[in-house]
Design brief:
CATH class of the largest domain in chain A: Alpha Beta
Largest interface: A-B, 35 and 35 residues
Number of domains of chain A: 3
Oligomer: homodimer
Order of helices and strands of chain A: HHHEEHHEEEEEHHHEHHEEEH
Number of helices of chain A: 11
Chain lengths: ~350, ~350
DNA sequence: TGTTAGCACTCCTTCAAAACGAGTGCTAAC
DNA sequence: GTTAGCACTCGTTTTGAAGGAGTGCTAACA
C-alpha cells in the first residue's frame, strides 16, 4: 500500500510550512483556509487523523492542533533535498596556506551565518587526513632551548620548544636537521615506524633525545588536528524560539555550545556520513549530540582539496526554515571559494 | 557625620550574608532572630529604614524584605578585601615556555574554576608587554614558499608563510637570516624604526620584499597578543540563579560570553586597574561590560614575570559568595605557579 | 532617649473556579 | 467522498479571594 497519496502529502506539507512560520500547533481550519486544496476543515480533519496514525504529525494534547513529528520533518526535508541536489556537485575547490588568516575568516563566517539565519552557527577549521610531514627545522633560540618547527602538507605549521642540556654547535644542528628531513619528509603518522625512529636515534648518537622530542612534536602536530578549533556564533539566537528557550532546554543547548568537544563530534560524524550534496540534516533525535534532541542541525562539508575538509553547521529549532538554510549554506560555499581559494 | 555606626554595619552585614545564602529579600524578623544582636524586629526595622535611606539596601517593593544595593555590596566586599590583603603580596612568580601546553592548561583552569564555584569562569592567555624579538628563522618549505618563524621574548612563537617568485639559494637564505637577526633581535615593536627597515631593505637588495614580509610578520606577531585568546567555562551556571536566568538576562549574559571581545575588554580593564592584591571586584554597574550589569565579576591578575600577565575572572550573581571566590582564586594562583612555573 | 509590642496596611503570591476558545471526533445530510 | 453542525475536551487566561510576609507608625515602657 502506498502510505501517502498526493493529497495527504499536500496537507502534510501545508501543516509543516505553516508550523515553520508560526511555531504554533496548526489546526484543520487553518489548513482549509490557507491551502489551495479547497477542502473543508472537516475533510482536513479526517486526513489529519490519518496522518497522525501514520506517524507524520502529532498532537501535543487533545484539542490542540497538530505539529510535525520527526518523521514528518524527515519526509519534508528529503524531498526538498532532492530538488537541490544537482546544484552543489561542482562546488568543490582547493586552496592554499594563510593559516593565520584562516581563523579570522572562520570566525567571520560563523558570525555572518548566525546573523543571516537567526539560528546558531558553528564552523570547524579544516581537518587534515593523511597528513604528511613536509619540512622540519630545528633552531637554537637561546642557550638551553631548541625550537622545532614542523610544516605539514597544506602548509600547516606547528612549533615546539624544548630544553637541552647545553648549546648545540651549528654543525650538530645542521646534521640533525638533515637527518630529520631525509628520514621523515613525505611520511604520514602511520608511516613513521618504530624502526625508523630507532635508526634515527642511533644516527643522532648523544643527541637521540632531540630526536625523541621532535618525534613527539610531529605526532602532536599531526594528531592535534583532530581536536582542532571550532568557532561558534549566535548561540543566543535560540532564545528567539520559545520552544527552545525554557530554562532546561536553553541550558542544555548552551552547554553543548560551550563544550566544543560535542560540536566537534558532530562535525566528525557529519564528515563521515557525507552525502553527495555535502549537506546533511539531523532532525531531533537523529542528531549525534544528545543535547540537541529538541533541535535540528544542518551541516555542510566543505572540501578544499588535498584532504582538507571541515564542517559548517546551523543549529536551530525543528521548525527551521530548511530551504533558506540550505540555500544560505550553498551560497556560503561559493564565497568560501573566493575568500580562501585565491592567495 | 559618621554614616554608619557599628550596629548598622552589623545589621547590614547580616542582611547581606543572609541574602547571599537565600537569594530572597530578607526581612526584619529574620535578622532579629538570626543575628547575635538581640534586638527586636521593630528596632531592626528602624535601622533598616535608615540603611535604605543611606542607599545601602533597597526594597524591591513595599512589603518585601530588603536586598543589598550595589553600594551595600561594595562596602561588604571592601572590608572583606582588607582582611585578606596581606596574604597575596608574595604570589608573584615567573615561568617559561610551553606555549603549546598553555592552551590546555588555561582551558582546564577555567573548567575547574567554574565547577568549583558554580559560577561562570573566564581566563585569558598572558598578554605580553614590551615584547622583544628574540630570534628569527627563514626557511624554504617548497619551491615557492618561505616560512618565517619569529620567536619573541617569553618563547612565544609565530609563523608566517609567504610566496616568493623563485627558490632562494641557501646562501641567500643564510644571508637574510643573518641580516634579520643582527638587525632586529632584542628590539621591541616601538624600537623598529623606518630607518632600520630601509637600511635592511637596502642590504637585502633584490630580496627586499622578503624583508617586508618579515617585518609584517613581526608586527603581527607582537601586536596579535593584544587580541589574544580567552577561554570560558560554566556559562550555563548562570541558570542556577533565578535572578539571572530569565530569558532576557540570560540571553544578554550568554552573548557576552560568546562575544569574547567583551570579555577581553574586561580583562584589559582589570589589568589596568590592578590592585595590590591583584584581585578586584566589580559589582553590577561597576562592570566595564554593560551586559553584566546584573552580575558581579571578580577578577584576578596573574603575573608570570617578564611582563607576562593575564586575567582570571569569575562571573556570577551579585549575591556571589565573595569570600569563597576570593579564596579560590588565591589557591588557584598557587597552583598556577606549580603548573606553569617548572619544566 | 532608645527599645519594643501591637496593629493596621500594603502588596506579592498562591489557589481555585470560571470563562474562553481553539480544535477535535462524530454524525447526519448532501 | 465531502461537508455542516454540534457536543465535547482540554489547555489558557482571567478573576477574585485567601494567605502571608513585611512594613510603618504609634504608644508604652525602661
Amino acid at each position: 500500500m502506498n502510505e501517502l497519496d498526493e493529497r495527504k502529502i499536500k496537507i502534510l506539507t501545508a501543516i509543516i510550512e505553516n508550523y515553520l512560520e508560526t511555531g504554533e500547533p496548526v489546526g484543520s481550519r487553518t489548513i482549509s483556509k490557507y491551502s489551495d486544496l479547497n477542502l473543508s476543515s472537516a475533510t482536513i480533519r479526517n486526513e489529519m487523523s490519518d496522518l497522525e496514525e501514520l506517524g507524520y504529525i502529532l498532537q501535543p494534547h487533545t484539542s490542540a492542533g497538530r505539529i510535525p513529528s520527526d518523521k514528518g520533518y524527515r519526509l519534508y526535508v528529503d524531498s526538498l533535498m532532492q530538488q537541490k541536489e544537482s546544484e552543489v556537485a561542482e562546488l568543490k575547490t582547493l586552496m592554499i596556506e594563510r593559516q593565520d588568516k584562516m581563523e579570522s575568516v572562520l570566525k567571520q563566517i560563523a558570525r555572518v551565518l548566525a546573523a543571516n539565519t537567526n539560528y546558531a552557527a558553528m564552523i570547524t577549521a579544516p581537518q587534515y587526513h593523511q597528513n604528511k610531514v613536509k619540512f622540519i627545522q630545528l633552531s637554537q633560540v637561546d642557550s638551553t632551548h631548541i625550537l622545532a618547527v614542523i610544516v605539514i602538507e597544506g602548509n600547516i605549521v606547528k612549533n615546539k620548544i624544548f630544553s637541552v642540556a647545553e648549546r648545540l654547535t651549528s654543525e650538530t644542528l645542521f646534521r640533525l636537521n638533515f637527518l630529520l628531513n631525509t628520514n621523515l619528509n613525505g611520511l604520514s603518522l602511520e608511516q613513521i615506524t618504530l624502526g625508523t625512529i630507532a635508526q634515527m636515534k642511533e644516527q643522532a648518537g648523544v643527541h637521540s633525545d632531540v630526536v625523541s622530542h621532535v618525534i613527539d612534536a610531529v605526532a602532536e602536530a599531526i594528531r592535534e588536528d583532530n581536536d582542532m578549533e571550532v568557532y561558534t556564533s549566535g548561540a543566543t539566537n535560540i532564545f528567539k524560539y520559545p520552544e527552545l528557550s525554557d530554562q532546561a532546554r536553553a541550558s542544555e543547548l548552551i552547554s553543548a555550545f560551550e563544550e566544543k568537544q560535542q560540536l566537534l563530534s558532530l562535525a566528525q560524524k557529519s564528515l563521515e556520513n557525507t552525502s553527495e550534496t555535502g549537506i546533511q540534516v539531523y532532525i531531533g533525535n537523529e542528531s549525534p549530540v544528545k543535547n540537541m534532541k529538541d533541535c535540528s542541525v544542518v551541516t555542510a562539508t566543505y572540501d578544499l582539496g588535498g584532504g582538507m575538509q571541515g564542517t559548517i553547521g546551523i543549529i536551530g529549532p525543528k521548525r527551521m526554515d530548511y530551504e533558506n538554510v540550505v540555500d544560505t549554506l550553498k551560497t556560503l560555499m561559493k564565497q568560501l571559494d573566493t575568500l580562501l581559494g585565491d592567495k
